[in-house]
Design a protein that fits this description.
Elements: E1 2-7, H1 12-24, E2 27-32, H2 38-46, E3 53-56, E4 61-63, H3 65-75, H4 86-117, H5 123-128, H6 137-142, H7 152-163
Parallel strand pairs: 1-2
Antiparallel strand pairs: 1-3, 3-4
Helix pairs in contact: 1-3
This protein binds glutathione.
The site of glutathione has 11 residues, from loops.
Length: 216
């Protein structure tokens, strides 16, 4: 059996399916779709809009990483990808009901706020920003997602203009261990350390944000 994988760049579910195909020893060809127009291709070939999707050499078409894993397990039993256990089924159900509903809720709030507060969004941007993708500054400007492109100084000038003041000091608060406004101030300095156990919490953001921490 071989397969054709329809994918988007930088998609984790697509990477997972690619890994699964490799583990199963299934030869595959990856078709790299272009974000945006990918929906037209996916709708035409699979009747759905998301990736990953695979077309297997027996003619079967499957969309979504979990259904794909199951379809692969059915055809090539070893190594098994989805454990056949009540625990695994419960974990998937929990993921759908609890975790997915949290993410879905946040996504709806994000989309709702952007639509409400950016009334000049282009039709393309309205369609594209709903999946939380990243835009370059130029793309965001062209699509009406931002007003202008500039550095902090320009933003402060704009704030002064809007407030109708020519003289105004801007005070920025920093934590005591932050020195400068650059990536380097977050970098670790110093020699190698020997630790019994390494807990690396450096990448955690310092601003309030949604975090799901799993400590099994
Ligand atoms: N839970 C699904 C996620 C599918 C999904 O959200 N795919 C994204 C790429 S990671 C996608 O197709 N986004 C584009 C779109 O929704 O049009 C899976 O594992 O297959």
């Amino acid at each position: 059996m071989d397969a054709v994988l329809f994918a988007l760049p930088a998609s984790h579910p697509c990477a997972a399916v690619e890994r699964a195909l490799t583990l199963k020893g299934v030869a595959y060809r990856r078709i790299e779709l272009i974000p945006g127009p990918h929906r037209i291709v996916q709708k035409a070939v699979f009747g759905a809009t998301t990736v990953p999707a695979v077309r297997l050499s027996d003619g079967t078409k499957v969309v979504g990483s979990r259904p794909i894993m199951r379809a692969l397990d059915e055809r090539v039993p070893e190594p098994r990808l989805v454990p056949d256990s009540a625990g695994a089924a419960r974990a998937e159900e929990w993921g759908d009901q609890v975790l997915q509903s949290l993410v879905g809720d946040m996504q709806q709030r994000f989309v709702g706020l952007v639509r409400e507060r950016r009334p000049n969004l282009s039709e393309e941007m309205k369609a594209e920003m709903i999946d939380g993708r990243v835009f370059s500054a130029n793309q965001a400007l062209a699509g009406g997602l931002v007003d202008d492109i500039g550095y902090l100084d320009a933003t402060i000038d704009r704030a002064r203009q809007r407030a109708g003041v020519s003289e105004a000091s801007v005070i920025r608060y920093r934590r005591s261990d932050e020195y400068a406004d650059s990536l380097y101030d977050r970098a670790k300095v110093g020699g190698a350390q020997v630790n019994m156990v390494n807990f690396n919490i450096e990448p955690l953001p310092r601003t309030p944000s949604f975090l799901y921490l799993w400590a099994p």
